[in-house]
Write a structure and sequence with these properties.
The protein is mainly alpha-helical. It contains 25 helices and two strands. It is globular and about 100 Å long. It is found in: Cell membrane.
Length: 600
Amino acid sequence: MLNDGFVPDRTEDHSESQRTPGSGDKNGMSENVELQLDYMNKTFKEDAVDDDDTIIANSKNIIAVGLESFWNNYQVFMSQHRRVLMKLALIIGIILILVYMGAVIWQFQLKENLNTDWCHGYGFSFILFGLLIWTVLYYNIFAPHLFPCLTRNIHCTTWIKIWRKSRVIAACGVIILLVAFLIWDTSSNRRRLISVGGLIVFICLGFIFSKHPTRVKWRTVYVGILMQFIIGMLAIRWKVGRQVFKCVGNLAEQFLEYAYVGATLVYGERIVRQDAVFAFQALSAIFYVGMLVQVLFYLGWMQVFCLKLGWLIQVLMGTTVMESVNAVSSVFLGMSEAPFMYQPYIKDLTKSELHAVMAGGFSTIAGTVFAAYAALGANPTHIITASIMTAPAALCYAKLVYPENTRSKTDSKTVVVYKSEDKGILDAAIRGANIGMSMVLAIIATVIACVSIIAFLNDVLAWLGMLVNVEDFTLETICAYLFFPVVWLMGVEPSDCLVVARLIGIKVTVNEFVAYIKLGELKKTMAFTPRTEAIATYALCSFANPGSIGVLISTLTTLCPEQRFNIIEVSFRAFISAIVISFLTACIAGALMPEEGFVD
């Protein structure tokens, strides 16, 4: 028996110790002490075998001892001189990049009659090199040394007063110039001004049905519409601008298509490449993007990107960081992949921010479907331009319909920079892919359910129409007549309004793929003007359909279950907002596009 695990119980030997009187007591006590020590040592050794924290005796091998000492000293040295070593590694990396770029420039000069190719070739490498130099200079010279020096020498209050006054004057000046340009540009066809009137009507409707009309920030609405006009001028009226946006879209598409390489290996060439099954092709990008973004988040790069981009848009439009990041990233990544970029912050989003996130996701399209829409018959330049123009419109209209009424936790001044809980790059990569798995399963389930319900409702309506001798009585037909005045407000010719309205009805009740298929067929059989075709393409360019509601709800609730009720609460309002956002983009396209269109 043991007391407290170490001291032996001597009750059994008590009678023997009493039998050794006198001098025998001392010998008996010493023997008992030795027995206790032996017993304690034996017990300690036996218990040590099962103790996980027991330190095993060091090896007597000289080489092993030397290696262990070397690695211990190495770890101490690295921890003590970490900053110096990081600076040294940065300098070495910059030198290697400079040497490489010198070799690139040398080879570029040696080759004669070589096309620069600013989208893929040498020109694109020069752009990346310039961005890299700017990043290094900004974080090592401008931000830590130059900018603080300038702010100390400049009286901030004076500049703030000047900025506030000049901002109002500049806003009024821009409006006057824009109105003057539209009056001059539409002199040959005043019908284009109907699109401007439609834009005003949609903004007024958004204000009338706003959740908190007294909280609307009109600066956000004004800047968002202005940015739409600027992007429209660059992409619709300027050939170089159209080429730039087309290049950006092609790069995003090329980046996402790498996901199909892994999908082809797992599922096969036919399912992914030839048949292009939605669950096996489009959703494969979620695994790819999820893994990459999780690794970037572990490295801390994603946080920097989100904060810088969000700060820039917040300065321009007055929106918060995460809703701004979502609006931009949704253009190229899509509504299912974009939330990966700000996943840790979803739990901090207010209802207004969740509404802006969902409206931005519904109103844009993913880079993965650019080529798919073009293959169905849509103009690829219109597709890319519409998607980019929609980003500022999504923010301004979402904040008009559901203004912020609580203090945000993702403002650039109050946002908390989260650090990854992953233990390493490999752990982050595996975790990102596993999160993608949950999202894919949820998306597949909700898409099947939503599309099936719509099909059931269509059949019920068709049966009810048959009983009263009304043919083609479906949700698409009902929406076609509902959207007729809306299409007229966008600037479509009256003779084409019902046809375009039916396309929008198909898109809203089924999806945009079917609508673009119908548009491609109509382009072959009907004499659409280039302007009518452009307005229809812009109005259809979004993910605002019943299946997307289930997709985005599943995505966000999988990433942040605690926000489930808030996400569901704002989802329908965000869906309606996204439909109108596409109409805003179509109105601006109708105002800027002449009847004969443009030819690259």
